[in-house]
Amino acid sequence: MNTRFLGPARLAVSAVGLGAMGFSGSYGAAEDDESIRTIRRALDVGVTFIDTADVYGDGHNEELVGRAIAGRRDDVVLATKFGFVSSPLSQGPQVDGSPAHLREAIEASLRRLGVDHVDLYYLHRVDPRVPVEETVGAMADLVREGKVRHLGLSEVGPAVLRRAHRVHPITAVQNEYALWTRLPEHELLPTLQELNVGLVAFSPLGRGLLAGALQAGAEFGEGDVRGHMPRFAKGNLDRNAVIADAVARVAEARRATPAQVALAWVLRRWDRIVPIPGSRRAERIEENAAAADIVLNDAEMTALERAAAPEHVAGDRYPAGLQRLADQGR
Fold first, then answer.
1. How confident is the model over 44-69, as a mean pLDDT?
2. Which of 5, 15, 78, 122 could anchor a disulfide with 152, C-beta 3.0 to 4.6 Å?
3. Contact 265, 301 (CB under 8 A)
4. Annotated active-site residue in 56, 121, 122, 177
5. Is 56 known to be catalytic?
6. Contact 114/150 with Cβ under 8 angstroms?
7. Please, which residues have CB within 8 angstroms of residue 4's CB and are 6 or more apart in sequence?
8. Average pLDDT, the chain
């Protein structure tokens, strides 16, 4: 696995990481033992960058990751997040970026993960009631205490990033970035490049759509967050499936899989972008890791970007309450 570097301090991570959210039921039921095998297989094939959060499964996800990496801590660049104090898809998602909550959150995360430090610690969403400078200042105290090595922010725009970066160097911003989610390109990506802050791209496979895992008219079961997301609503999903068809055509010509092509597109956009696809199956982990060896040519990049132009994407990323919260960080 190739290595990429995040932030001014050049945190070394695998070029493709692993997003762990799906191991705690976000896309339907998951089985813990199989999830642990999948995480360990990721480490075996060189995927060293694992991303979790305290809100995933109300702590279950961190506990699961902790069990999976036990005895292999030195093989892992471990990232987690704090800030949500209720499920993001519940009525009126709540965040708390106060220093007092931060203290409680980091101690709980360390305990669940079974580690003495986190390599990359994110503010999951900006709290509109707490200046980001105050939150990041308290996070910087954790760096000085050795409980956290690097700091990150999630779902922020250039202005908030600059304010935070003046308080303490930010290593990475984690925002949604994928072929059908291009918002970071407009202002955030140039700012990241200027400040030498990495971009960790979550949902780089469009929550399964770009990987060819969903068909037009797909139904979502209980516990699957996509059932609440406008892009996957009936009508919108049918329109968005056309984008997946374009990815599949490039993949067929490449003799690759759609997931590999979607990840290769992200990887080529900048060498400080690290996608963190999620999967509950070990064979998918191996497939995603192999995307690091695929370099798309200019014609392939252009064809994909035309098919997924913003005017062709139907629906917002989130339901209204969560979309407002994401927008507040910009």
1. 96
2. 122
3. yes
4. 56
5. yes
6. no
7. 12, 13, 14, 15, 198, 271, 272, 273, 274
8. 93
